[in-house]
Amino acid sequence: MEIKIKTGEYEVIASGSIVGNHNEPIEFELSTLFFIFEFITDTNSPESKINKTGIDDKTLKIELINFNNTLGTRNTAPLPIGTVNNRKLFVNFSSYSLSESTGPIFHYSFLHKIED
């Protein structure tokens, strides 16, 4: 049985949860694109930030800075990350860590915007 999931004006194309390893990125391959989520702790600033850097035309590194709160940290709106099959691709995610010495628990949803 096929299940289709929608949230607002977006269709969920993949979602899940990962228990990551401490100090190691989480990598996704979606169609011909690659996404690297890197978790960084900045002890000089308490602010959570997201930095996107294109590594090449198929790979995007997404730095999640201070996404290590025990209660969780998430993006506030779908983050645009590329195009697949001529449709814009977005991601929503949340992350939390149980301690400074454990890897993140990372929840993600890859999304396409629903077209009329």
> What is the residue-mean pLDDT, rounded to a whole number?
92
Oligomer: single chain
Q: Strand content of the residues, in percent?
A: over 45%
Order of helices and strands: EEEEEEEEEE
Globally, the shape reads globular
Number of strands: 10
Instruction: Compute the separation of the termini in Å.
Output: 25 Å
Number of helices: 0
Low-confidence stretches: none
Overall domain count: 1
Main sheet characteristics = 6 strands, antiparallel
Structural class: mainly beta
**Helix content range:** under 10%
What is the rounded Rg?
A: 15 Å
What does this structure look like?
- The model has no long low-confidence stretch (mean pLDDT 92).
- The chain has no helices and 10 strands.
- The chain is globular, with a radius of gyration of 15 Å.
- The strands form 2 sheets. Strands 1, 2, 7, 8, 9 and 10 form a 6-stranded antiparallel β-sheet that branches.
- The chain has 116 residues and is an all-beta fold.
- The protein has one domain.
- 0% of the residues lie in helices and 59% in strands.
- The protein has strands at residues 5-7, 10-19, 26-30, 33-40, 49-56, 59-65, 73-74, 79-84, 87-96, 105-113.
